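User: My instructor asked us to take a sequence, write out its structure as tokens, and then describe one feature of it. I'm not sure where to start. Here is the sequence I was given:
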Amino acid sequence: MTTTTAIAHLSDPHLTTGPLAGDPARGLSRALGRVLALDPRPDCVVITGDLVDQGSPEEYRTLHELIRRFPLPLHLVAGNHDEPKALLDEFTGTRFVGEGGKANYTVDFPEFTLVVLNSKVPRSGGGRLGAAQLDWLDGVLARRQSTPAIVCLHHPPIAIGIPFLDGMRLDDGEELGRVLARHGNVARVLAGHVHRPIVAPFAGSTLAIAPSTHLQSGLALRDGIPNYLPEPTSFMLHLLVGPSWITHTVPVSHAAAPIGGY
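Assistant: Let's start with the prediction itself. The structure tokens for your sequence are:
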């Protein structure tokens, strides 16, 4: 059976400007090219935060230039390195964010609802959604109850076993879990922030954390800082196969596979 419903899940490109701009931009461009080489191509791409490194308008202009001609639907999520106002100043009115001029938004596809949340907390590495956004999410999930929902945010809502990063996860992860558990249509919760591929059960669904398209975090399972490492890059591909959602990890930097152009 040929699967036609799929979501490519990228994260943490950390685009920047100046002398160090080359490697992050090449990493994201190569990952997007690998997406285009998939057959069939995914319905959409989502990038779960830390789109840029400093949150400056110049960095968002660089990101816009890089993705401007990408031919598939592509949706952006704010991370702790992002500045939502600068992000929206650059992308409001484009196909890369929702129509309401906010960093949390929904996009309705025939086979699924993409829900983007904003977990940014000013001047903090950690994340929080807040009561108002959780109430909004509750209403969104109730709107298309028979359609799978893909909920996207930057910060993981649970501990992942790396103490340094667990100290800056989503503060109200339990509250998010209670909202999701009230609905039976959440197929995946997509996150980033950790710079490693991780899958875990969460709130009656599955949490999938995508690696970075640039550098990966060290597997520091004891105390200590998990310094960024040039490990191989990849992204996740979430497929609807019959009644089930299946997640694959797709190698990029070390793949002997075709890369598409755009």
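For the description part of your assignment, you could build on this observation: The longest helix spans residues 22-36. Try explaining in your own words what that tells you about the chain.
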